[in-house]
Amino acid sequence: MYPTISDLLKDIFGFYLPLPIQSFGFMLALSFLAAAYTLKLELQRKEQGGLLRPIIQKVMKGERAKPMELISSFLIGFVLGYKLVYAFLNYSLFVEDTQAILLSTDGNWPAGLVLGGWMAWMLYREKEKEKLATPQLITQQLHPFEMVSSITIVAAVSGILGAKIFHNLENLDDFARDPIDALISFSGLTMYGGLIVGTIAVMRYGYKLGIPPLVLADATAPGLMLAYGTGRLGCQISGDGDWGIVNLSQKPGWLSWAPDWVWAYNYPNNVINEGIPIPGCEGAHCYMLPDAVFPTPLYEAIACIGLFFVLWMLRKRLKHTGQVFFLYLLLNGTERFFIEKIRVNNKFDLLGMQVTQAEVIASLLFITGLTGWWLSSSGRFNPRANES
Questions:
Q1: ∠ CA 378-379-381 to the nearest 5 degrees?
Q2: Average pLDDT of the residues in 51-57
Q3: In the prediction, which pLDDT does 102 show?
Q4: What is the pTM assigned to this prediction?
Q5: Dihedral, CA of residue 90, residue 91, residue 96 and residue 100, to nearest 10
Q6: Tens digit of pLDDT for each residue in 304-330?
Q7: Measured between alpha carbons, how far is 212 from 245 in angstroms, rounded to an integer?
Q8: Which of 48, 72, 267, 337 could form a disulfide linkage to 362, CB 3.0–4.6 angstroms apart?
């Protein structure tokens, strides 16, 4: 396992380069970038096909900098200077425990004040250059694909918040034991929580911009599948605890071509220090599972990245609005429902059955996808324009 990017680089190149970058966080960032890139391509294509129109916004041009704008700019600069300069001056500690540095109250006050003041001054100066004797209300036109960065930020913030909320709901005992750590810890994310809350937030944001919800949903669906797959790669690489049940059975013959860890893996050097000590190991991550388990993050990564290509190839062939998104729900729900059979997860009683939170959500996604597919295929929603 490679809890940090430094561990990965050391294994590849043979030398240790201290970097404060967690492997899971790095892969999560790549996931958002990949989803943003595919979304931009789809929004451009849909606008060319006539499904989307430019966004018309009215803005006041030539105004002086408002007090709240200056205060916001100062606060952003202050936090950056306060934390980053302190992290630089305590770099070894920052590399060793990035979370402790970022979430503590420790920082460099002079650096925060200087950077905050500089950013506020730069904003004031820029506004003064653009100031008009009489501010004018002008109309500007934005293409939907130009809003991808804003959409990505909304998805990232709401998705991580949703993943945190759902994880804590699923692990109420851990939350009650240490609620502060449960809320601010970088670990403990439920992917479905991020998917549900992130999707709702993005659809609402797009609706405010005048983008039809199902058109936006179709555009985001392939990227969502890709992001889920690359996110699971982060789980596999770092060993964050999202693995399967114990697997002591012999590797089947049809998998003889693959390394043993594809069938059963004990996640040595996992990032959460789960299991038993590794003999002779020194450092921050020296534990491995006592018994090998199914590497379910790897299975999900392979499945979802493969399903991304399926959605990407079909996106131009499906003729009705909503079909791509509802197909995504069908595929995602099916994949997650079956992987839950070999995943470690908390179970609860539902109508006399032992089920997991993910199984319930996966079933609801499948039903929603199936219903939505039938409605969209029967022409209940607006038909697609001529997309190419």
A1: 125
A2: 88
A3: 81
A4: 0.86
A5: 50
A6: 999 999 999 999 999 899 999 999 999
A7: 42
A8: 337
